[in-house]
Amino acid sequence: MIKARYKKYKLIFRQPAGTSRGILHEKTSWFIFIYNDVQPEISGIGECGPLKGLSIDDRPDYEIKLEEVCNNIDYYVNQTEGLDEYPSINFGLEMALADLRYGGRKILFPSDFTSGHDSVAINGLIWMGPFDAMQKQIREKIEAGFTCIKLKIGTIDFNEELNLIRSVRKNFLSTDIELRVDANGAFSPDQALEKLKRLSDNQIHSIEQPIKQGQWDKMAELCLTSPIPIALDEELTGVNDYKEKNRLLEIIQPQYIILKPGLLGGFKASEEWINLASEMEIGWWITSALESNIGLNAIAQWTYTLGNKNPQGLGTGQLYKNNFNCPLKINKGQLFYSTDENWDLAPLK
User: Fold this and answer.
1) How confident is the model over 315-324, as pLDDT tens digits?
2) If you classify domain 120-348 with CATH, what class do you get?
3) Of the candidates 86, 13, 15, 2, which has an alpha carbon nearest to the alpha carbon of residue 50?
Protein backbone atom coordinates (compact mmCIF):
# COMPACT_ATOMS: atom_id res chain seq x y z
CA MET A 1 0.00 0.00 0.00
CA ILE A 2 1.33 3.44 -0.97
CA LYS A 3 1.65 6.02 1.79
CA ALA A 4 2.86 9.61 1.93
CA ARG A 5 4.01 12.24 4.39
CA TYR A 6 5.52 15.71 4.09
CA LYS A 7 7.96 18.00 5.89
CA LYS A 8 8.20 21.77 5.80
CA TYR A 9 11.66 23.31 5.39
CA LYS A 10 12.78 26.94 5.29
CA LEU A 11 15.66 27.72 2.92
CA ILE A 12 17.82 30.72 3.90
CA PHE A 13 19.56 32.80 1.21
CA ARG A 14 23.29 33.30 1.64
CA GLN A 15 22.70 36.95 0.78
CA PRO A 16 19.55 38.90 -0.09
CA ALA A 17 18.43 38.24 -3.67
CA GLY A 18 16.91 41.23 -5.45
CA THR A 19 14.20 41.08 -8.10
CA SER A 20 11.78 43.68 -9.44
CA ARG A 21 9.16 42.11 -7.13
CA GLY A 22 11.24 42.68 -4.00
CA ILE A 23 14.18 41.29 -2.06
CA LEU A 24 14.23 37.63 -1.06
CA HIS A 25 15.72 36.50 2.25
CA GLU A 26 14.19 33.05 2.61
CA LYS A 27 12.01 30.56 0.79
CA THR A 28 9.81 27.77 2.14
CA SER A 29 9.53 24.37 0.48
CA TRP A 30 7.51 21.33 1.49
CA PHE A 31 9.01 17.91 0.78
CA ILE A 32 6.66 15.04 0.07
CA PHE A 33 7.82 11.47 0.74
CA ILE A 34 6.05 8.58 -0.98
CA TYR A 35 6.73 5.00 0.05
CA ASN A 36 5.31 1.48 0.16
CA ASP A 37 4.44 0.22 3.63
CA VAL A 38 6.15 -3.08 2.77
CA GLN A 39 9.49 -1.26 2.35
CA PRO A 40 9.05 2.04 4.22
CA GLU A 41 12.82 2.61 4.26
CA ILE A 42 12.71 3.22 0.48
CA SER A 43 10.94 6.45 -0.38
CA GLY A 44 10.72 8.85 -3.27
CA ILE A 45 11.09 12.53 -2.43
CA GLY A 46 9.57 15.46 -4.25
CA GLU A 47 9.81 19.20 -3.64
CA CYS A 48 6.73 21.39 -3.49
CA GLY A 49 8.03 24.95 -3.51
CA PRO A 50 5.63 27.74 -4.50
CA LEU A 51 7.12 31.19 -4.99
CA LYS A 52 5.63 33.89 -2.83
CA GLY A 53 3.77 36.47 -4.88
CA LEU A 54 4.24 34.59 -8.13
CA SER A 55 2.93 31.02 -7.95
CA ILE A 56 -0.83 30.61 -8.36
CA ASP A 57 -0.71 28.23 -5.38
CA ASP A 58 0.79 30.82 -3.04
CA ARG A 59 -2.33 30.70 -0.88
CA PRO A 60 -3.26 30.23 2.82
CA ASP A 61 -4.70 26.73 2.36
CA TYR A 62 -1.57 25.35 0.69
CA GLU A 63 -0.48 23.09 3.53
CA ILE A 64 -4.05 21.92 4.09
CA LYS A 65 -4.17 20.77 0.47
CA LEU A 66 -0.80 19.06 0.75
CA GLU A 67 -2.00 17.19 3.83
CA GLU A 68 -5.12 16.09 1.95
CA VAL A 69 -2.94 14.79 -0.90
CA CYS A 70 -0.82 12.77 1.52
CA ASN A 71 -3.89 11.37 3.29
CA ASN A 72 -5.43 10.33 -0.05
CA ILE A 73 -2.26 9.41 -1.90
CA ASP A 74 -3.81 6.36 -3.62
CA TYR A 75 -6.25 8.69 -5.34
CA TYR A 76 -3.68 11.28 -6.39
CA VAL A 77 -1.03 8.89 -7.73
CA ASN A 78 -3.54 7.64 -10.30
CA GLN A 79 -4.80 11.00 -11.50
CA THR A 80 -4.23 14.63 -10.64
CA GLU A 81 -7.75 16.00 -10.82
CA GLY A 82 -8.03 18.78 -8.29
CA LEU A 83 -4.38 19.89 -8.49
CA ASP A 84 -4.61 22.42 -11.36
CA GLU A 85 -4.65 25.19 -8.77
CA TYR A 86 -1.65 23.66 -6.97
CA PRO A 87 1.00 23.21 -9.69
CA SER A 88 3.91 22.92 -7.26
CA ILE A 89 2.19 20.09 -5.38
CA ASN A 90 1.58 18.29 -8.66
CA PHE A 91 5.25 18.81 -9.53
CA GLY A 92 6.41 17.45 -6.16
CA LEU A 93 4.11 14.45 -6.51
CA GLU A 94 5.40 13.70 -10.01
CA MET A 95 8.98 14.05 -8.80
CA ALA A 96 8.51 11.78 -5.78
CA LEU A 97 6.86 9.05 -7.86
CA ALA A 98 9.68 9.17 -10.42
CA ASP A 99 12.24 8.88 -7.61
CA LEU A 100 10.40 5.95 -6.01
CA ARG A 101 10.22 4.18 -9.38
CA TYR A 102 14.03 3.99 -9.42
CA GLY A 103 14.46 2.98 -5.79
CA GLY A 104 14.61 6.37 -4.07
CA ARG A 105 18.20 7.06 -5.16
CA LYS A 106 17.49 10.57 -6.52
CA ILE A 107 18.07 9.20 -10.04
CA LEU A 108 14.78 10.07 -11.71
CA PHE A 109 15.87 10.14 -15.37
CA PRO A 110 18.89 7.87 -15.89
CA SER A 111 21.18 9.18 -18.66
CA ASP A 112 24.74 10.11 -19.52
CA PHE A 113 24.19 13.10 -17.24
CA THR A 114 23.43 11.02 -14.14
CA SER A 115 26.29 8.63 -14.95
CA GLY A 116 28.69 11.58 -14.94
CA HIS A 117 29.56 11.37 -18.64
CA ASP A 118 27.92 14.59 -19.80
CA SER A 119 26.80 17.98 -18.52
CA VAL A 120 24.18 20.69 -18.98
CA ALA A 121 25.16 24.21 -20.05
CA ILE A 122 23.77 26.84 -17.67
CA ASN A 123 23.68 30.64 -17.41
CA GLY A 124 25.26 32.66 -14.64
CA LEU A 125 22.53 34.56 -12.77
CA ILE A 126 23.12 38.17 -11.67
CA TRP A 127 20.75 39.36 -8.95
CA MET A 128 19.61 42.97 -8.67
CA GLY A 129 21.46 45.27 -6.35
CA PRO A 130 23.64 48.38 -6.32
CA PHE A 131 25.66 48.97 -9.49
CA ASP A 132 29.00 47.97 -7.95
CA ALA A 133 27.55 44.79 -6.45
CA MET A 134 26.05 43.72 -9.77
CA GLN A 135 29.29 44.50 -11.59
CA LYS A 136 31.16 42.37 -9.06
CA GLN A 137 28.75 39.47 -9.64
CA ILE A 138 29.27 39.72 -13.41
CA ARG A 139 33.04 39.73 -13.04
CA GLU A 140 32.93 36.68 -10.76
CA LYS A 141 30.69 34.73 -13.16
CA ILE A 142 32.89 35.47 -16.16
CA GLU A 143 36.04 34.58 -14.22
CA ALA A 144 34.34 31.31 -13.23
CA GLY A 145 33.97 30.41 -16.90
CA PHE A 146 30.34 31.26 -17.65
CA THR A 147 29.73 32.26 -21.27
CA CYS A 148 26.04 33.12 -20.77
CA ILE A 149 25.08 35.79 -18.24
CA LYS A 150 21.52 36.61 -17.19
CA LEU A 151 20.89 39.94 -15.46
CA LYS A 152 17.83 40.78 -13.39
CA ILE A 153 16.85 44.35 -14.30
CA GLY A 154 14.04 46.74 -13.49
CA THR A 155 14.83 48.02 -10.00
CA ILE A 156 17.80 50.40 -10.14
CA ASP A 157 17.89 53.38 -12.51
CA PHE A 158 17.54 52.20 -16.13
CA ASN A 159 20.52 54.28 -17.26
CA GLU A 160 22.66 52.57 -14.62
CA GLU A 161 21.48 49.20 -15.89
CA LEU A 162 22.43 50.24 -19.42
CA ASN A 163 25.86 51.33 -18.21
CA LEU A 164 26.27 47.98 -16.49
CA ILE A 165 25.46 46.10 -19.69
CA ARG A 166 27.71 48.39 -21.75
CA SER A 167 30.58 47.70 -19.37
CA VAL A 168 30.30 44.01 -20.29
CA ARG A 169 30.10 44.69 -24.00
CA LYS A 170 33.19 46.92 -23.88
CA ASN A 171 35.24 43.87 -22.99
CA PHE A 172 33.31 40.95 -24.47
CA LEU A 173 31.66 40.43 -27.84
CA SER A 174 28.36 38.58 -28.12
CA THR A 175 30.32 35.62 -29.51
CA ASP A 176 32.25 35.52 -26.22
CA ILE A 177 29.51 36.30 -23.69
CA GLU A 178 25.79 35.85 -24.34
CA LEU A 179 23.74 38.41 -22.41
CA ARG A 180 20.16 37.76 -21.33
CA VAL A 181 18.08 40.17 -19.28
CA ASP A 182 15.02 39.51 -17.14
CA ALA A 183 12.67 42.40 -16.37
CA ASN A 184 10.11 40.32 -14.41
CA GLY A 185 7.38 42.55 -15.86
CA ALA A 186 8.97 45.77 -14.61
CA PHE A 187 8.47 47.90 -17.76
CA SER A 188 5.24 49.80 -18.36
CA PRO A 189 3.64 49.01 -21.75
CA ASP A 190 3.98 52.60 -22.98
CA GLN A 191 7.72 52.74 -22.20
CA ALA A 192 8.73 49.17 -22.98
CA LEU A 193 9.52 49.52 -26.68
CA GLU A 194 11.75 52.55 -26.13
CA LYS A 195 13.70 50.69 -23.44
CA LEU A 196 14.01 47.62 -25.63
CA LYS A 197 15.45 49.79 -28.42
CA ARG A 198 18.02 51.26 -26.05
CA LEU A 199 18.95 47.82 -24.77
CA SER A 200 19.31 46.44 -28.30
CA ASP A 201 22.49 48.43 -28.95
CA ASN A 202 24.28 45.96 -26.67
CA GLN A 203 23.66 42.72 -28.56
CA ILE A 204 21.18 41.28 -26.08
CA HIS A 205 20.22 37.66 -26.72
CA SER A 206 16.71 38.01 -25.24
CA ILE A 207 14.61 39.71 -22.61
CA GLU A 208 12.27 37.84 -20.27
CA GLN A 209 8.81 39.20 -19.55
CA PRO A 210 9.34 42.93 -20.27
CA ILE A 211 5.78 43.81 -19.14
CA LYS A 212 3.46 42.20 -16.60
CA GLN A 213 1.63 39.06 -17.60
CA GLY A 214 -2.00 39.07 -18.67
CA GLN A 215 -1.66 41.78 -21.33
CA TRP A 216 -1.71 39.46 -24.32
CA ASP A 217 -2.42 42.06 -27.02
CA LYS A 218 0.27 44.44 -25.77
CA MET A 219 2.77 41.62 -25.40
CA ALA A 220 1.95 40.43 -28.92
CA GLU A 221 2.63 43.93 -30.26
CA LEU A 222 5.96 44.04 -28.43
CA CYS A 223 6.98 40.62 -29.79
CA LEU A 224 6.21 41.87 -33.28
CA THR A 225 8.11 45.18 -33.01
CA SER A 226 10.87 44.58 -30.45
CA PRO A 227 14.48 44.66 -31.71
CA ILE A 228 15.28 42.12 -28.95
CA PRO A 229 13.75 38.61 -28.94
CA ILE A 230 11.17 38.29 -26.16
CA ALA A 231 10.84 35.30 -23.86
CA LEU A 232 7.63 34.63 -21.93
CA ASP A 233 8.04 33.50 -18.33
CA GLU A 234 5.40 34.58 -15.80
CA GLU A 235 2.96 34.76 -18.73
CA LEU A 236 2.70 30.97 -18.71
CA THR A 237 1.76 30.55 -15.05
CA GLY A 238 -1.85 29.64 -14.37
CA VAL A 239 -2.51 28.58 -17.98
CA ASN A 240 -3.31 24.89 -17.58
CA ASP A 241 -5.73 24.00 -20.37
CA TYR A 242 -4.06 22.69 -23.55
CA LYS A 243 -6.26 24.78 -25.85
CA GLU A 244 -5.58 27.88 -23.77
CA LYS A 245 -1.83 27.26 -23.99
CA ASN A 246 -2.15 27.00 -27.75
CA ARG A 247 -4.23 30.20 -27.91
CA LEU A 248 -1.73 32.15 -25.81
CA LEU A 249 1.16 31.21 -28.08
CA GLU A 250 -0.83 31.86 -31.25
CA ILE A 251 -1.87 35.33 -30.08
CA ILE A 252 1.43 36.53 -28.58
CA GLN A 253 3.85 34.65 -30.89
CA PRO A 254 6.93 35.10 -28.69
CA GLN A 255 10.43 34.26 -29.83
CA TYR A 256 11.01 32.10 -26.73
CA ILE A 257 9.21 30.60 -23.76
CA ILE A 258 10.85 29.77 -20.44
CA LEU A 259 9.63 26.77 -18.50
CA LYS A 260 9.63 26.40 -14.73
CA PRO A 261 8.14 22.96 -13.95
CA GLY A 262 7.43 23.96 -10.36
CA LEU A 263 5.20 26.84 -11.51
CA LEU A 264 3.62 25.04 -14.46
CA GLY A 265 2.53 21.78 -12.85
CA GLY A 266 5.46 19.45 -13.46
CA PHE A 267 7.28 17.72 -16.28
CA LYS A 268 4.29 16.54 -18.32
CA ALA A 269 2.64 19.96 -18.18
CA SER A 270 5.90 21.60 -19.26
CA GLU A 271 6.28 19.15 -22.14
CA GLU A 272 2.87 20.26 -23.43
CA TRP A 273 4.27 23.79 -23.72
CA ILE A 274 7.42 22.46 -25.41
CA ASN A 275 5.46 20.48 -28.00
CA LEU A 276 3.27 23.46 -28.84
CA ALA A 277 6.26 25.80 -29.04
CA SER A 278 8.15 23.40 -31.30
CA GLU A 279 5.19 23.23 -33.68
CA MET A 280 5.22 27.03 -33.93
CA GLU A 281 9.03 27.25 -34.17
CA ILE A 282 9.25 29.08 -30.84
CA GLY A 283 12.49 28.54 -28.92
CA TRP A 284 12.55 27.50 -25.28
CA TRP A 285 14.72 26.64 -22.31
CA ILE A 286 14.24 25.44 -18.74
CA THR A 287 14.85 27.21 -15.45
CA SER A 288 14.36 26.28 -11.83
CA ALA A 289 12.03 28.25 -9.57
CA LEU A 290 14.46 28.65 -6.67
CA GLU A 291 14.06 25.04 -5.57
CA SER A 292 16.55 23.42 -3.21
CA ASN A 293 19.06 20.96 -4.63
CA ILE A 294 16.38 18.25 -4.43
CA GLY A 295 14.11 19.97 -6.92
CA LEU A 296 17.03 21.29 -8.94
CA ASN A 297 18.40 17.78 -9.30
CA ALA A 298 15.11 16.49 -10.72
CA ILE A 299 14.76 19.41 -13.13
CA ALA A 300 18.37 19.09 -14.33
CA GLN A 301 18.03 15.36 -15.00
CA TRP A 302 14.79 15.88 -16.92
CA THR A 303 16.23 18.83 -18.85
CA TYR A 304 19.16 16.76 -20.05
CA THR A 305 16.81 14.19 -21.61
CA LEU A 306 15.21 16.94 -23.74
CA GLY A 307 18.39 17.53 -25.73
CA ASN A 308 18.16 21.34 -25.67
CA LYS A 309 21.67 22.81 -26.06
CA ASN A 310 20.78 26.37 -25.00
CA PRO A 311 22.20 27.42 -21.62
CA GLN A 312 19.56 26.58 -19.03
CA GLY A 313 18.65 28.47 -15.86
CA LEU A 314 19.81 25.79 -13.45
CA GLY A 315 22.55 27.49 -11.46
CA THR A 316 20.55 28.29 -8.33
CA GLY A 317 21.89 25.52 -6.08
CA GLN A 318 24.45 27.85 -4.50
CA LEU A 319 21.87 30.35 -3.27
CA TYR A 320 21.09 28.87 0.14
CA LYS A 321 23.27 28.52 3.22
CA ASN A 322 21.27 25.48 4.40
CA ASN A 323 20.83 23.66 1.09
CA PHE A 324 21.34 19.89 0.94
CA ASN A 325 24.76 18.53 -0.02
CA CYS A 326 24.35 16.67 -3.30
CA PRO A 327 26.19 15.40 -6.39
CA LEU A 328 25.37 18.48 -8.49
CA LYS A 329 28.51 20.50 -9.25
CA ILE A 330 29.19 23.56 -11.44
CA ASN A 331 32.38 23.97 -13.43
CA LYS A 332 32.97 26.62 -16.12
CA GLY A 333 29.31 27.21 -16.84
CA GLN A 334 28.43 23.52 -16.95
CA LEU A 335 26.29 21.58 -14.47
CA PHE A 336 27.59 18.09 -13.68
CA TYR A 337 26.34 15.14 -11.66
CA SER A 338 29.33 13.79 -9.73
CA THR A 339 29.05 10.06 -9.07
CA ASP A 340 31.68 10.45 -6.33
CA GLU A 341 29.42 12.66 -4.19
CA ASN A 342 26.60 11.57 -1.89
CA TRP A 343 23.34 13.15 -0.79
CA ASP A 344 22.95 14.48 2.74
CA LEU A 345 19.26 14.79 3.63
CA ALA A 346 19.83 14.75 7.39
CA PRO A 347 17.96 18.08 7.88
CA LEU A 348 14.78 16.40 6.65
CA LYS A 349 14.93 13.48 9.08
Assistant:
1) 877 889 999 9
2) alpha beta
3) 86
